[in-house]
Design goal:
The complex is a heterodimer.
Chain A (H helix, E strand, L loop, with lengths): L2 H6 L5 H23 L10 H6 L2 H34 L3 H13 L2 H11 L5 H8 L11 H26 L2 H9 L4 H12 L1 H17 L2 H6 L7 H11 L3 H21 L10
Helix pairs in contact in A: 2-14, 4-8, 4-11, 5-8, 8-11, 9-10, 11-14, 13-14
Chain B lengths: L5 H24 L16 H8 L1 H33 L4 H16 L2 H15 L5 H26 L2 H9 L4 H30 L2 H6 L7 H10 L4 H28 L9
Helix pairs in contact in B: 1-11, 2-11, 3-6, 3-8, 4-6, 6-8, 7-8, 8-11
The chains are: A mainly alpha, B mainly alpha.
């Protein structure tokens, strides 16, 4: 249908856009790949890749994956029931809006809040003391890192799941119940499979950023957690070793592509 | 529809409480005359006054808004034209390729975007600062504008264009008086998304900002690394107020255009 518009407008509109794609989509990827095979003096080398497969980097990659997995899992566990219950509320669009608002507050500010909340004299430790325990350092632990990340990602997980639950035909659930399915069976065999696309998009927008976060690790986790993102930032801005940073970035891109393939929607035109 | 059980209500209240608690916690202590986020001594507006008296901070705030508005505007122009261009491509393969390329920056981790842009700017000799930040923000906002405008273009009835042409409209007229007005809700939505992307961005800016120039996110980061400062809390109060206003505005535009897309992520 849209193809017809073409004949009636010039190719002109496409020129700045194509220019943008070449300069800011294709060139940066090419440059990252190019830099990944350069040493500190700008000569060709594969040592960066060799270095990536040493235990230090492999361990870092594995732990980054582990944290990203934990973050995604907990985000999903909290987000799914929330999205489900939201679709049952009376003014569901309004409630969804209220879920979205915190996600529009600057990430840094929300992270900063937890420096106070988890601090040695913060409200959480005050609560711990009420129950007769000694206050302890919650900040700069991997727990605080996972907690804050889950907090940050929950709205982004809720939105796609809410949308797919909202689109679901409710008579399917009634049919399942009428045919004698328990509520758990209904959920497992009807509701969840029908909303799997929403879950997949939710995983996509959580898992990939969770691999690459670096400000939360720096502010909340101290040096307890090093993600792939932290390592890239470290190499680029602290060690000034762009080659190694680019190599890690190449792998991060590869993991991203794999995640995308893994969470790809089967039905056509799921996302524009 | 059945009413929610007490358990379900409790759960929802719990989730909302957890989502909002940190934000209100920040805002609450922004009125604290003590210097910390622990003991509330007495009510004061001194931290808000401190924000407005700090001329460096004000300049950073203005820079942030300027970058957001400018990058939003430029990205909206490039993105809208791009979307019009994309729907006009006949070759399906070509069109899908462009759409895939369009989504690369949306799904890419921002660390990778930041690092690769840093290499790019260094290579072509762009000085790090206002220009590099602005260009980066334009670059990562273009794809979201395209995604917001495309559905509007696709739902447009082509006979509108045929009719305009039959009635003697030039190509320019068709674009300016038929296509653009029809897709304007998508354009506004795209502009809004671009604004929020820009205002919210930290990682990309952090990489390409250099020494002299700073945006709010980057400034908050360096302040937070130095420890707790209630000036940040006062900024949170201001940001929260502005965000709520933007969200309300976006909500109404969205409602009018009945766009399906909700929220964005960077």
């Amino acid at each position: 249908m849209g193809t017809k518009i073409m004949n009636k407008t010039a190719k002109g509109p496409l020129i700045p856009y194509i220019f943008w794609i070449l300069l800011f989509v294709i060139a940066p990827i090419a440059l990252i790949v190019y830099y990944s095979v350069l040493d500190l003096n700008g000569n060709f080398t594969l040592t960066n890749y060799a270095k990536f497969f040493t235990p230090v980097y492999l361990k870092m990659t594995l732990s980054s994956f582990w944290y990203a997995f934990l973050i995604t899992l907990f985000t999903l566990l909290f987000a799914y029931p929330t999205a489900y219950l939201l679709t049952k509320t009376k003014h569901k669009q309004l409630w969804l809006m209220l879920i979205i608002i915190p996600s529009w507050i600057n990430l840094l500010l929300k992270t900063y809040a937890f420096i106070g909340i988890f601090g040695l004299y913060g409200p959480i430790n005050a609560m711990i003391e009420v129950f007769g325990f000694n206050p302890k350092q919650i900040l700069f632990t991997d727990f605080s890192f996972v907690f804050v990340s889950v907090y940050i990602f929950i709205p982004f997980m809720i939105i796609p799941i809410f949308n797919s639950l909202d689109k679901m035909n409710p008579s399917l659930i009634y049919a399942a119940r009428d045919l004698g399915a328990s509520s758990w069976t209904t959920f497992r065999r009807v509701i969840f499979p029908l909303t799997i696309d929403g879950v997949k998009s939710g995983i996509q927008v959580t898992f990939i950023p969770a691999l690459s976060l670096f400000m939360i690790t720096r502010l909340i986790a101290g040096n307890q957690v090093i993600t792939l993102g932290t390592a890239i930032e470290q190499q680029f801005l602290v060690s000034q070793n762009w080659g190694m940073g680019s190599t890690i970035a190449v792998f991060l891109i590869l993991f991203m592509v794999l995640t995308m393939l893994f969470t790809r929607q089967k039905s056509k035109g799921g996302r524009v | 529809m059945k009413k929610l059980s007490a358990m379900s209500k409790m759960y929802l209240i719990f989730v909302f409480a957890v989502l909002y608690a940190p934000i209100f916690y920040l805002i609450f202590y922004s009125f604290n005359s003590g210097g910390s986020m622990n003991n509330f001594e007495s009510f004061t507006l001194e931290h808000y006054a401190a924000v407005f008296e700090d001329s460096r901070l004000i300049i950073i705030l203005l820079n942030t808004v300027l970058v957001a508005l400018l990058s939003g505007l430029i990205a909206t122009i490039i993105g809208t034209l791009g979307a019009i261009g994309i729907v006009s491509i006949k070759d399906k393969k070509m069109r899908n390729t462009l759409l895939s390329l369009n989504n690369v920056l949306i799904v890419s981790p921002d660390v990778v975007i930041g690092a690769s842009f840093l290499i790019l700017f260094t290579m072509i000799g762009v000085k790090l600062g206002f220009a590099s930040v602005l260009v980066s923000h334009v670059a990562f906002s273009v794809p979201i504008v395209v995604l917001m405008v495309l559905p509007k273009l696709l739902e447009m009835n082509t006979s509108l264009i045929d009719a305009a042409r039959d009635l003697g409209a030039t190509k320019r007229d068709v674009l300016m008086r038929v296509i653009l007005p029809y897709i304007s809700p998508g354009i506004f939505a795209g502009f809004f998304m671009a604004l929020t992307y820009s205002l919210d961005d930290f990682a990309v800016t952090f990489f390409v900002t250099g020494n002299g120039f700073s945006t709010l996110s980057v400034e908050i980061y360096s302040m937070a690394r130095a420890g707790i400062s209630l000036t940040i809390n006062a900024i949170s109060g201001l940001v929260f107020a502005v965000t709520v206003l933007i969200v309300i505005g976006y909500y109404f535009i969205n409602k009018r255009s009945k766009s399906v897309a909700t929220g964005g992520h960077r």
